[in-house]
Amino acid sequence: LGDVYKRQVYDIAQKPALQVSQHLEIRYLARLMIQYSVKSVLVIDNNELQGFVSYTDVVSSLFHRAADER
């Protein structure tokens, strides 16, 4: 893997990379990930990479949200 800070987004992102705003609701993100069959997306704000969200992150968030509603 090497030094993670020296890696380029292009090297580790799926191509084409799906990018979303950090303000997108998790349910819409889940729909996009299913629609485009991707396991992770880039989170971009003001043209700067804020991070990645994985399929596992989305499922975990939705699970916790459903549990909180009970």
Explain what you see:
- The protein is an alpha+beta fold.
- The protein has helices spanning 9-12, 26-35, 55-69; strands at residues 19-20, 40-45, 48-54.
- It has a 3-stranded mixed sheet with strand order 1-2-3.
- It is elongated.
- The termini are far apart.
- The mean pLDDT is 84.
Q: What would the average pLDDT be, to the nearest integer?
A: 84
Counting helices, strands and paired strands, the structural category is alpha+beta
Helix content: 40-55%
- Helical stretch tally: 3
Give a quick account of the main beta sheet: strands, pairing sense, barrel closure.
Answer: 3 strands, mixed
Query: Strand-residue fraction?
Result: 15-25%
Number of strands: 3
Within the largest sheet, what's the order of strands? 1-2-3
Shape: elongated
Distance between the termini: 42 Å
Summarize the structure.
Helix content is 41%, strand content 21%. It has three helices and three strands, in the order αβαββα. It has helices at 9-12, 26-35, 55-69; strands at residues 19-20, 40-45, 48-54.
Q: Which features characterize this protein?
A:
70 residues, alpha+beta, three-stranded mixed beta sheet, 3 helices, 41% helix
Record the SSE blueprint:
Elements: H1 9-12, E1 19-20, H2 26-35, E2 40-45, E3 48-54, H3 55-69
Helix pairs in contact: 2-3
